[in-house]
Fold these 4 entries.
Entry 1:
Amino acid sequence: MLASIEPQKLEAGSGLSVWCGTCKRSATLNVAELVKRLGPDYSRLHWDLIEVIYCHECRAAGRDDRNIQFTNHAVSPEMRRR
Ligand SMILES: [Zn+2]
């Protein structure tokens, strides 16, 4: 069996926010919702997320909707539900 580095996966208990460089908005992503949509093994790395996430505001306005950056952040323990 190959030992591998644990990939960064989407976790319902973790936080992920997105910032749009086009309209300068930021939003917190609903990771639990993403996990439901993409599956728990989906990577949370930028180049994977950029495939499925875009700025709705900018898309609606016909601007560059993938000029976005992701920020991972830990969720405080009281927000964690098991
Ligand atoms: Zn935008």
Note: Residues 20, 22-23, 25, 55, 57-58 surround zinc ion (CB under 6 Å).
Entry 2:
Amino acid sequence: MSFDYSNQLKAVFGKNAEVYAEKFADQSAFQESIDFFCAHIKSNPIVLELGCGPGNLSAYILDKVNPASFTGLDVAPEMIELFQKRFPTHNAVVGDINSFSFEHPLDAIIAGFCVPYLSEFELRSLVKKMKNALTINGLCYWSWILGNNESKTTKSSDGKHQLLMHYYSYEFMKSLFEGSGFEVLNYQEVGEDGVFIWQKS
Ligand SMILES: C[S@@+](CC[C@H](N)C(=O)[O-])C[C@H]1O[C@@H](n2cnc3c(N)ncnc32)[C@H](O)[C@@H]1O
């Protein structure tokens, strides 16, 4: 990720962290995927959440799963501050997904809507890193905005910022993961959003 793009992400997500936390607090549209993920994860797992934001998705998962270790990673310090306030006993790290060194082994990785901010090159390299970091049968919760493998400059929800976002198709995502040693356990589509639950085979 370029220095400029990283700063743009920090501006968009950092300045709007409180608003974002409230606006997207309700994750119940993804309940099927969340329940599936929680039902299939091993007990007391070691979990890493990429682009955790203020912890909206984490809250649903932590309601059902008792992790041995749970780390939230986000590029925006304001998001990490909210995450840490909400979950003071869990680990909160400010950092970029693309340069973060994954600790091995991980039982599960959660990536809730941080995918639209990753280029195809970054995505391919992330999937490889995830494959190496996960234990056998380790799980991945993966949500993204569906599209035709295109990148578009999109206005942030407050209308104040423009950000390049990436939209990937179902077929692209399926073939990327299956070709990298993952098996689909579940898929849910909610409007323009897709959620896969992957298992490392
Ligand atoms: C749309 S929000 C999703 C937040 C949370 N996962 C949820 O589902 O509510 C995307 C989050 O990913 C973070 N993010 C985007 N690209 C990132 C990167 N390269 N490294 C770390 N965090 C990133 C943003 O700062 C933002 O908090």
Note: Helices lie at 3-15, 17-23, 31-40, 56-62, 77-86, 120-133, 170-178.
Entry 3:
Amino acid sequence: MQVSRRRFLSAAPAAALIGAAAVSGRVQAASIPEAPTTDSPAMQPPLFPKSGPEYQPVVTLNGWTLPWRQNGDWKEFHLVAEPVVREIAPGMKANLWGYNGQSPGPTIEAVEGDKVRIFVTNKLPEHTTVHWHGVLLPSGMDGVGGLTQPHIPPGKTFVYEFELKSSGSHMYHPHADEMVQMAMGMMGTFVIHPRDAAKHRVDRDFVFIMNGFDFNPGTFVPKVSTMLDFNIWTWNSRVFPGIDPLVVRKGDRVRVRIANLSMTSHPIHLHGHHFHVTCTDGGWVPETARWPESTIDVPVGSIRAFEAVADAPGDWAFHCHKTHHVMNPMGHNTKNFIGVQQRDLANAIRRLVPDYMPMGERGMSDMSAMEHDKPQNTLPMMGGQGPFGPMEMGGMFTVMKTREGLQPNDYNDPGWYQHPAGQVAHQHDGPSPEPVKPAAPPSQKGPGMEMDVIKPGQRGNQQRHH
Ligand SMILES: [Cu+2]
């Protein structure tokens, strides 16, 4: 793993940690597990457990899983809440808040029945807490500042301890300075594997969390008071073309766990497959209650995990279906100039602004091929070069790359799909077929038709009364 390690306290022998009761709520001079950290937005390989029950670990898009240590009965983790620098995509970095060097924080993975002890050190300039979204636990471990615990002051470490009662897909995020801390990127996913590894088994298990940011062009810190008008729509604080592809082997059973902590829902669509939603942040969906989909809407504050058999080799688009969410920074006051002859107007404006260039007369796709003079640290509105040209998207978009003959757990990008001969849509060069004339319309006034049809120039009955 490309994860550097740093120690906050010199590691005393594990035996220095005494019983849970003596540690709860306050950290003594006992040893705290090291807090691994990374400054890389690169996907780390899945972290297979070195001890305890076996499971197929998840892969976090542009992220990683937090290593832990076993201490007696307890699995110990150490999260550090802190300011971080996140590359949103090549060409744009953001000053966010997150955990252990990145936003989102590392994924926490454990097993149903595990006892987990999670140390949280606050290196933010203000207090925080961590809430374990959807995890069944004692009320006092639920992480709601003021309600279930005092806030964690800057510079202090708190410890959370609970037993994992059920397997599933969950999240963690602060319940402190509610609007600011999540708008700054503080969140992560929490995956609890079944104790029986054969249950809900898949070959590849991806996870990511959806969020949104509002950056003034050229700036590095998102606005925190925006309610709806975000301009950077991210998966794990990344936008296309910076989001990792989902690399899968033909025939694999694939699960994708999608969490949403943005301010709106996202209908997520996978091309080329039918899937079933098998898990939410409330647990596993009984098999008899599952239905097929190719798009699943993920509401705010929830998780939807779907499963599909990757039986079709190819490059399959995987994206949010809200069209603004597959764009990078854009103003939302853009006028529609489609069909407007701008030549005369452009000549007039050029007398004042010599470089003026009319845009949008034939749509906006011109913009994808053009590098405008952008402010620093600002991405183009649409990007991503595919094997056939520009893809004209940004934001919440990536590609599921299904290939034959990959090794298990090989997530390296295999490049673009090589289509079999004759299986790519292509230009038709023969004569165009004659347009077919529609059949004569049926009589406009038949039995059962109670309204007169008003012809152009004729006034309707309603108007006559005025
Ligand atoms: Cu969306």
Note: The chain has four helices and 26 strands.
Entry 4:
Amino acid sequence: MSFRLRLKGYYQRKSARLLFRKPFLIRLQQPLISFTFDDFPRSALLVGGSILNNVGLAATYYASLGLIGKEAPSGQIFVADDLATLFDQGHELGCHTFAHCDSWETDTETFENSIIENRAALNRLVPGAEFKTFSYPISLPRPRTKAKVASHFLGCRAGGQTFNVGKVDLNQLSAYFLEQSRNDIQSVKNLIDRNRQDGGWLIFATHDISDHPTPFGCTPEFFEQVVRYAMGSGARILPVIRALEVLDAPGCRQVRTPPRIVASAARVSVSQPSLKPLVSILIPAYNAQEWLADTLRSAVAQTWEHKEIIVVDDGSTDQTLAVAQQFESHSVQVVSQPNQGATAARNKALSLSKGDYIQWLDADDLLAPDKIARQAEVLDRSRGKRMLLSSPFGQFMYRWYRARFVPTALWSDLSPKEWLLRKMGQNLFMQTATWLVSRELTEAAGPWDVRLRGNDDDGEYFCRILLASNGVQFVPEARVYYRVFGYDSLSYIGVSEVKRDALWLSMQLHIGYLRSLEDSPRSRTASLDYLQRNLFYFYPDRPDIIRHAQQIARALGGELGPPHLSWDYSCIKSVIGWEMTKRIALELRTLRKSANKAFDKTLFSIDNLIHAARPLDLEARVVFTEPLPPVKPI
Ligand SMILES: [Zn+2]
């Protein structure tokens, strides 16, 4: 390349990037990924669009209506009839100028006229349809062109081979052209990983999707690999305009439209009636009169129609049984037993179930309406009945529509070994209702361990499920709402001896499970971290357990120190001693949680007054961008 051309390229990139910006800050808890196709070759919709639609996803197609039906360097361009398919599948149609004008070589006036002409052409074909976003054809834009284009669209996309994070320019969003790495899937995976770590918005772009792609496209196999890896990363995958809405970008409030998620899930289940497996939703309930009705409504409302729901009332002393019985029907079965604890109630429910798959649901949690349908969609393609499906979960107290979905390292496709290493090494957990477990795995794992009455029974049970599995497939579109109450919930440990004994047993089992998968420096370190972190619960008044823990630590080649306290407790510890400090810490945590709970309940009541009866439309109100204050072990 000549010096003149290089200089021109440099000037182009610099001036386009620096001028006429529409600055916007992106820092996400749950990363975003968008798939876009420039020029809209037919194969991008018929092949690429199908790959996405089969897993319930949609893309953005940047069209130059002047190219309709033509043969372009990126292949055969779409025909008018394709637009119906595009809208029907929930994709976005974006603007790429009418004449596919070079963004740098074309003068600004001609360029803008071509945008207006494209809009008019669209209106003739699909009255009422509008372009909301734009992709610059061929080159980066001239500064003046960029300034003009800004007024026409909510967001404009260029190239740049990177993702968007921090202070970005909505007038020149970066994209990664897949064809440039079509022989190097690893670099694409690395980028998806970085986008996840940084909480960014990664926009992929390409052209045709074909077995014999043009230099501007890629093969269906490659594209599908990218889609799968993107799904496994825990990112939300949305067309550009939907992503701008999630980001609450300027001007996006007005264009917000209801998500099509439920519709697409329903379509998938209707299209394969004979293959539908039966899913058993199993709900153990103890003194849950306040929550159970909502929980049952969310189970009954599952768009996955082939289901049975079994409630086992574990000898509640309140109205739980009566609430459950109001829901009894051909698909909702309610049984009652004398109080025996959650594990026994779960085993009872399991013994009554007939499903090919099991959905566990605690009596105060909620499932998004398409939770099971979303996971069932991937069953066909997952690697057999030994694959374990998981999903994201958001935490809430009363206001489920304010649930926070905070991704962790477990929100991915993982091998059993990697999953357990991350869980134990990083102190993570997966909520019970996130799983969808096959009958085969359930039988291989055996029943719930009734010795773990009162604590971490689910942590231990799903370890055994995991050990029997071929791995975890994470389904980012399936959602669970986890009601956290802390001090009065089953999982609160406090100083109860029964719960502490159960926790200690569960911990020993966990370490055994991990070492059965891998006995390596890595697994020993994870086990030591896990012991050290949980030592707090036994210190200093359970010397029997502490001694035993120390023995295990030595066998692992390590040594346990005194438990860590956060800085605000470590100074008072030196004055009043360990025992007292711990009691104060536990009391304060209880107080803080009950204050949070009362606060949330008040806001929930106010919201209900304002909005009258709020329908349980779990889809619409999920807040992804505000993190919950971390629940740190004190
Ligand atoms: Zn183009």
Note: The longest helix spans residues 578-611.
